[in-house]
Amino acid sequence: MKKSDAxxxxxxxxxxxxxxxxxxxxxxGLMMFFDISSIFITIGGSLGAVMITLPLGTFKKIxxxxxxxxxxxxxxxxEIISQFSxxxxxxxxxxxxxxxxxxTQLEDDFLKKGLQMVVxxxxxxxxxxxxxxxIGEMETRHANGASIFAVxxxxxxxxxxxxxxxxxxxxxxxxxDASTIAQGMGKALITTFYGSLLANIFCNPIASNxxxxxxxxxxxxxxxxEGILAIQSGVNxxxxxxxxxxxxxxxxxxxxxxxxxxNIEGVA
Length: 268
Prior knowledge:
Distance between the termini: 33 Å
Strand content: under 5%
Structural class: mainly alpha
Shape: elongated
Helix content: over 70%
Oligomer: single chain
Order of helices and strands: EHHHHEHHHHHHH
Radius of gyration: 26 Å
Mean pLDDT: 88
Number of strands: 2
Strand order of the largest sheet: 1-2
């Protein structure tokens, strides 16, 4: 399950608003920054280069991948540890087959698959191999998605410079016509502006966003894998908890331990 990532939307909207405000401060309005031919050169040209670079199957997912930047995993490392604490205690007390009912209630497909293999009695080496392959495939899939925007971000400034050259050529072609000089100089500057804007407020941040989310998800799955194998091995639930806490940042560990103390005091 995934939840909405409000910070991405706030950052994108906030960046655009700040840019628009800066563009309007001069008193000339936003129309001085609008040039249709510059848009075609920068956005259309760079997008065409992306189409040439990437396979059709990857490029077709651009809309789906873009929306993933506004979502994040609903489960956290602390929640996963709490979940494994409950599962390991049940397995140790009632046996691995007792997890069958718990598996049907899990939302994470990766965790369900791993625990089902444990219940089915599959060898630990085989479980590790299968789940590590799945993690690797997930990382590859995510990297392919992020590459759409990374590649676009690389090409956008180049096409902005290409538009600059086109504008300068048009300006130099007819120095006697003042209107042509103004038009060419405008295009020369605006296309560079569009290229930098497209790369730095949209493409590169989205690519970095997707990369960071992939790293987080891979880390959570590594945590699940260790927990799954520990349950299969019959490791003490307290040891499993300590082992999985090593995946948390120091501040998260403190929060988790504090939460456990509060829960124990609440029960008492």
